[in-house]
Amino acid sequence: MTDNGASTPNSPQDEGFSYRSLLRNYISLSGLALAAIALANIIVLFIIDVTAAQPSPYTGILAYMIFPGILIAGLAIAAFGVWRERKRRLEAVPGTPLLPRIDLNQPGQRSRLVFFLSFVFVFIMLSAVGSYRAYEFTDSTTFCGELCHTVMHPEHTAHDHSAHARVSCVECHVGSGASWYVKSKMSGLRQVVKTVLGTYPHPIESPVKDLRPASQTCEQCHWPRQFWGAQLKVFNHFASDETNTPRQIRLLIKTGGGDPNSGQTAGIHWHMNIANKIEYRSDPKRQSMAWVRMTDRNGNVTEYTAAGADPAAIAKMDQRRMDCIDCHNRPTHVYTPPDRSVDQALAANRISSTLPFAKQQGLQILTAEYKTNDQAQAAIAQAIPAFYKEKYPQLASSRAADIQNMVMELQRIFRENIFPEMKVDWRTHPDNVGHYYFNGCFRCHDGNHTSKDGKVITKECNSCHTVLGQEEGVLPANVVNTAMSFKHPIELGDLTAVNCSDCHNGGVGP
């Protein structure tokens, strides 16, 4: 200020050096323009995301990750431009105060402060909403399965056709708790880098070592203590002959389970740490069990060793307590073998079992080698009609619709279970439930695991299931051949004349 109160030229009080004017430079204006464009895109994409029935996975990543980053970058560029312009002006006018003078008695400064605080408040609120939506989006099945389409396409396709299709990926692969969330995101960053660089494995390996214990994931819905009794399983098979000869096997699977405090624990779920603890040592993929230890509820310990196993090698293996995932290792990402897929299609009449050699031709075309899915689809569309045209020309003409249905069903089977680009099919990841296509149960129940006192882990079929029926030639219309009438322990005459609840009320018996 001069003696007469006039402003010194180029001082902060001069209009040419007002702090609002610091934004008037190419860097700051470019940053503000970038931030404005990003904000407009965020608003539009947010509206699309919340209103669309099935928004694209790219909508979420753009709305909650990419454009918010651009918005912040634009504001940072604008701030850098202000800092640079201020520095330039300070160098041009020596002695200018480094910081602005704040005087809330001046209406102009009060207005600017209110505007600044309002902006900060709105920005924080938008950031909070955006951050939550970003967190929610990164936990979605869309993010996990569809964003990296080529990489995760087999896993996402199998998930969509599994019994867990309505269970999100993170509920099994991450679960609850901050530590596992952070661990999964750190692992995810490595996977993103590999995806960008194209160094990810073909196929993607199963994360056996990184999975949480089943008690913290599977057992949040499935509780072995509440599993009881047995399950009826019906298996339909068709021969690879001209008539696709059918064969049906009916088994009573002794699932078992139970609570030791209220009843006997038995069946297959006897293994599930209900009244017994099972531990083992194996190869990293858990396909060859070298050593097994069983501790019962009374503390009695029995150790079994596989025939020919090297004690020194066993000692170097990691020891693991058995849980659900040791048998149900493919609870969601199942790639059904062609043999079973074609059997299921024939049993459901999606492929007509009266087409000659339908099973044989289906297996032959599905198990051929292809480089891409498109190549396989084209080969199926050409090979099946060509076979019937050559071998059964009259049938090829009269039953063209059935042959076309067979083509479409085989194409669907291939599309949902075999992925040449990622080198994934039913052989890639062994399925340990049962023992038909892979050793599964026979990893331990092979008759070759013995204890020091001569006990053997049984291989007896009836220890886990009971065969109820085996028919060949014609699939039975009913699950069982005969039906028995219920016999009440007390003679009541015509049972249709009374209701059970007439006597049984849940309290004192009749």
The whole-angstrom Rg is 35 Å
Spatial ordering of strands, largest sheet: 6-3-4-5-7
Report the helical percentage: 40-55%
Helix-and-strand structural type: alpha+beta
Oligomer: single chain
Please give the largest β-sheet: 5 strands, antiparallel
Enumerate how many helices there are, as a single number: 13
Describe this structure in words.
This protein has 510 residues and is an alpha+beta fold. Among the domains are: 15-138; 141-200, no CATH class; 338-422, no CATH class. 40% of the residues lie in helices and 9% in strands. It has 13 helices and eight strands. The chain has helices at 26-51, 57-92, 107-138, 141-146, 149-160, 169-173, 178-197, 311-316, 338-347, 358-366, 373-391, 393-398, 400-417; strands at 231-238, 246-253, 277-282, 289-295, 301-306, 319-321, 449-450, 465-472. The strands form two sheets. It has a five-stranded antiparallel β-sheet, with no helix packed on it. Strand 4 (289-295) and strand 5 form a beta hairpin. The longest helix is centred in the N-terminal third of the chain and has 36 residues, at 57-92. The chain starts with 25 loop residues before the first helix and ends in a 38-residue tail after the last strand. The model is unreliable at 1-16 (pLDDT under 50).
